[in-house]
């Protein structure tokens, strides 16, 4: 108890000290407010007594001011589009460090986008515009304060105000939303058709499974019927066997009764016989008695065996009966399953017929729509695209006249491949789950150009297996087009004749791709087999890989980099040495092509040396 009182006192002391500190701080704040009030009165007096234009004194930053200019024409957009509400400072001054407020008068809250301290103030934003607005932050320095509004809704229509508090400037701009009746109708039809087609495909996939299951159930039913028939046949045989056992048992019992009577008669005759008894007759009766007694014993044993056999037969019959009943019940269940499967199949057929009718209706609706000049066609290159293994290639397709494909699904497939999907662009991204693994990390669309109707696909690091026809399909427009990719093969050809040079010369080991294709982005390896390390010159990612080069060739090799685009992969060797003689190999890993060339080092003759020396002497004399 004492300890608790001490703790409470300690807490009370702390609270008293804290209260004193608060009072001191409050007094300081009041004193500061009094000083600020005096300063304000002084400034106010100077301003009010000053003659002439008072605006510069009140707002000195307004002199040499920029104007805030927004588009005077209404901005027209369609539901689902992205739109830019264009506003700028003119003459341009930086708005990077300024607060920019975009509001929609009449909305509650009215704030659409407030940019402050270099970021969006989410707390003040109207929830209807969450994740749908952005400023061009990198262009604020040039006075561009435009706002981009994503996925426009019909409710977004109206007047918007742009306001810069630090400049006390505001301007208005109007947004109008128009209905894309025709396009919506066509897109709706296309999407509906796509949905109905997928439903029909799904049903078509289910039907074979149900057919197979029905067939299996039918086989199972037949097998069980056969087993039941066999078991019934066995049961009938057992029943007949049981009847025979009962008959035999009855005969045995009857015979035992007869023997018993004979035994009693003989026994009575032997025991009651008086007078003269002959030995032979007495012995005969005793013998007969013994035979009858033995027969009774045998019959008794047979009776017991018959009883045991009867019991076993009854048990077996009962087991067979139970098994027949169990299989019969199972058969009934199988029959019920078969009926259920048949009902499912009938239901699927009914749904398919219904979908077929809807499909026909939507096709009729789609093709009965009046064709307008605004309808875009999907156009792909009619000429085959020719590339070589290892190249990057563009399968060119576009909407003409151009309309935005930014919010549309774009499907690139390769018919005959399983799965056939090469690149599915949906909701602004690649759907990885549907992509064929052979094309993982090797495809891309030009996302920034989708708005212009460019739906081309770039295929990286082309393989020989990539050759074939590709299909581009836009479900919302129900448009498709085909394009063919052919993979060409170039051969690597080096000089078949040995290259002869002299020590100290510069020499070119000539090799080229024929027909010529670019080797600019390819790895080119020059090696000298038998040398350790064997690498003479490795050109990769546009440069020489020094780390792999044999030190004997440092600063003595070069490729003709500007001619790689024409397939020229020759290597120049400077200041040839006698040890440089031998076979060289040129290898392009991406094409898996290699070729050999031989360098021979010749000796300069004395005459040549003598002539050369005298030539130099003559030149010196002339000089």
Task: Walk me through this protein's architecture.
- 40% of the residues lie in helices and 24% in strands.
- The chain is of the alpha+beta class.
- The chain has five domains: 2-58; 68-179, Sandwich (Immunoglobulin-like); 187-368, Helix Hairpins, CATH 1.10.287; 377-488, Immunoglobulins (Immunoglobulin-like, Sandwich), CATH 2.60.40; 491-607, Immunoglobulins (Immunoglobulin-like, Sandwich), CATH 2.60.40.
- The strands form nine sheets. It has a six-stranded mixed β-sheet, with no helix packed on it. It has a six-stranded mixed β-sheet with strand order 13-22-21-16-17-18, with no helix packed on it.
- β21 and β22 form a beta hairpin.
- α3 packs antiparallel against α4.
- The longest helix is centred in the middle third of the chain and has 92 residues, at 181-272.
Task: Describe the structure concisely.
With 623 residues, this protein is α+β, with helices and mostly antiparallel strands. The protein is built from 5 helices and 33 strands.
The first-to-last residue Cα distance is 121 Å
Helix content: 40-55%
Number of extended strands:
33
Shape type: extended
